[in-house]
Amino acid sequence: METQETLAAARQIFGERLTFNASIRETHAHGEANPACHLPDAVIFPETTEEVSRLLALCHANHTPVTPFGAGTSLEGHVAPVRGGISLDLSRMNKVLALNAEDLDARVEAGVTRRQLELDLREHGLFFSVDPGADATIGGMCATRASGTTTVRYGTIRDNVLGLRAVMADGTVVDTGGRVRKSSTGYDLTRLLIGSEGTLAIITEIQLKLHGIPEAIGAAVCGFASEHDAVATVIEIIQTGIPVARAEFADAAQMAASIAYSKLTHLAAQPSLMFEFHGSAESVAEQAARAEEIACAHGGAGFAFATEAEARNRLWRARHDAFWAARAAYPGMGAFSTDTIVPISRLAEALALTRELVTRSGLHATIVGHVGDGNFHVLILYPEGEAARAWELDRGIVGLALSLGGSASGEHGVGLGKREFLPLEHGPAALEVMRAIKRALDPRGILNPGKIFLE
Amino acid sequence: METQETLAAARQIFGERLTFNASIRETHAHGEANPACHLPDAVIFPETTEEVSRLLALCHANHTPVTPFGAGTSLEGHVAPVRGGISLDLSRMNKVLALNAEDLDARVEAGVTRRQLELDLREHGLFFSVDPGADATIGGMCATRASGTTTVRYGTIRDNVLGLRAVMADGTVVDTGGRVRKSSTGYDLTRLLIGSEGTLAIITEIQLKLHGIPEAIGAAVCGFASEHDAVATVIEIIQTGIPVARAEFADAAQMAASIAYSKLTHLAAQPSLMFEFHGSAESVAEQAARAEEIACAHGGAGFAFATEAEARNRLWRARHDAFWAARAAYPGMGAFSTDTIVPISRLAEALALTRELVTRSGLHATIVGHVGDGNFHVLILYPEGEAARAWELDRGIVGLALSLGGSASGEHGVGLGKREFLPLEHGPAALEVMRAIKRALDPRGILNPGKIFLE
């Protein structure tokens, strides 16, 4: 059998770093919140790009499927090896290779995690701006085109990567982009690989754009009588050009859950916005004052502005813990988070219609959102054993977002879970262009088969 | 002959909008600063995406080359129909199709020009941030991955396009991306087409990101004893996080030329920086004060800050007229502008070594730069009939930039002029991936043949 040939030859390269261990295979069979659907035949832990290259050349020769794995935090089943073969765990490629404060850039291996990088950069007064919440690997964040709370100001990972090193399906190593801030020479392979979910190449190194840690950071939270008022506030703040660094929304149900879970007892269980402002001390104070003025004009109450790190950290920790807070509020229930995005002018409508769908489903749900981008997550709670009802609600919410000119995913990606929506969102012609690229770059279909495209 | 078949059938679709007129063919034989190298067999002026689609289906069937043409302002010969065939002039597709102030976006046809859009948006209090200087079409700016003076704050056109409508080689119409601010579903075809120079598809409509016109705008200019001091000032300003909207450099020779040409008699002929600041009135004043402090610490003298529109406009008009000022300073000489980019930490070195190359060449040159990005242009002046010496100097400058970790072009693109550098910059493996994509999407090679890749 061909996979056996690959594994026999790979054993010569990787030794003990190729494993058939059952529990390791099980942890590599699924991402977060996804059931295991297929075990890999083996898990391999490469340590260099060259090793990845040698392995892919073998897999290409033998038609062996390869599914890359980082921290396993992806939410749409990207890392599930649905055709078996090899789970390629890049977590040992975890070195920060270079850091250049003058150019505000760094080069990292794909397995470096977000928090590891944050700690490394902090002592240099620098930060990497993309924060999806989970402690994902930078390689995984590239593969899924991650973004998060700071996107409204700093962009997604697409905007914060200068170049990649990647291994193509046949083992060829390519460098896409370099260290320059921009270039107009040749096709943008960097952006083509970002978001390709391991189906076109395996990313092994990333050149990242960094930012200086702002001189001052302020945070604020504000409650509203209605979601419409909260959304109108954010729209006006962005139109006015206030360079808000974070603009997060939580609905009343999520606020109730977070107040209980994260002990935010000074807050009210009503639709709320959480802001962060970056800049000089004067600029941060001015941004907050202007945001407060706009919030008040939309009936916002209790605009609480804080510059102390402790109060800020507590607020953002609560935001990152939203999922766990919602689970705690509905004990014994299963939960998963779906992700859609609409043009911000349709956001209030999307939230209202989403709530109608939730009510009709008979399930519970809370809503949080990177509202400055029009991106929101519905945390769906369902009685154990009734996941199918939650998936049905999920499909309704995504369909609704698409009908409002939105996308099936703002930041979680396609993986297995969102494949059915691609023809509707992109149309058959664009999807065929994507398939043509896939066929051209991975003619044997060995790279993360079964993802993005329905067969 | 197959082109004749295409033209006969196209005549049925386009009538008088297909022309063999000799002078029209001549104006479509070259871009700015490029000699005509080949006339198109005919020039066609489509008015709808559907017409472009019908034409490309014909061209695909008959293997007829098609070279898109916008305003003809590109600098590397992109629009030259080196294999003859059809020059597809999109200038009549010049409608602004939609404008949405809440979402800060607009939809335009490919032939809309930058200044036309600027005027349309101004009355709505909005602006489109990408400013390459020339009054290029938005479609052409997408095709060449344009950027310019405001990139340091607002990004290149890559960062300011949400989605495209494009016609593939066989006439299929695709929509890439939509109206949402971000998405993580499927391959990033938008970014693949941006910068592909008409070799993968013909872009016909663009969904653009807009910005609100800032409440206040300030400009400043400052002279330095050395280029090194000017560059160090910019590096520190960016590291400090001052959100400067423009940071332009001109060397002493360019300043002398611009002072004479644009009557900037209050300025000195020394290496200079020109800044623009956007924000609230308080924020602009604070940004300027902080920038001045940093400039002074590096010996900057005469930091002149102005908020009056007249003084600002005069400064930026002078910047945009730099090329003409340099030509006027060296009457009777031929001139062309080359374009490279290096990591900003290598910029002072790149400028010094570039000057050595200029001196050794015996030619004159002035240097201007989007210095916040590490991007600079050398305006090379050469005696009539000695263009070859200028091209040789150009090749030396580009090779130097590549040796410093740079790119052969920051914003002008590859076209004909920079093809030879792609293997060196990207390496044979990445170039082969680009070629594989080209073959997959344009198997008959009809779209802008002869560009980007050397045969």
Strand content of chain A: 15-25%
Q: Architecture of the largest domain in chain A in CATH?
A: 2-Layer Sandwich
Average of the residue pLDDT scores of chain A: 96
Strand numbers in spatial order across the main sheet of chain A: 15-12-14-13-17-18-16
Main sheet characteristics of chain A? 7 strands, antiparallel
Describe the structure.
The structure is a homodimer of 455-residue chains. Chain A has 455 residues and is α+β, with helices and mostly antiparallel strands. Chain A folds into 4 domains: 2-91, Uridine Diphospho-n-acetylenolpyruvylglucosamine Reductase, domain 2 (2-Layer Sandwich); 95-212, Uridine Diphospho-n-acetylenolpyruvylglucosamine Reductase, domain 3 (2-Layer Sandwich); 216-316, Alpha-Beta Plaits (2-Layer Sandwich); 330-420, Alpha-Beta Plaits (2-Layer Sandwich). Chain A contains 15 helices and 18 strands. In chain A, a hairpin with a 4-residue loop joins strand 8 and strand 9 (173-176). In chain A, helix 1 (2-14) runs antiparallel to helix 3, helix 9 (252-262) crosses helix 11 and helix 13 packs antiparallel against helix 14. The two termini of chain A are 24 Å apart.
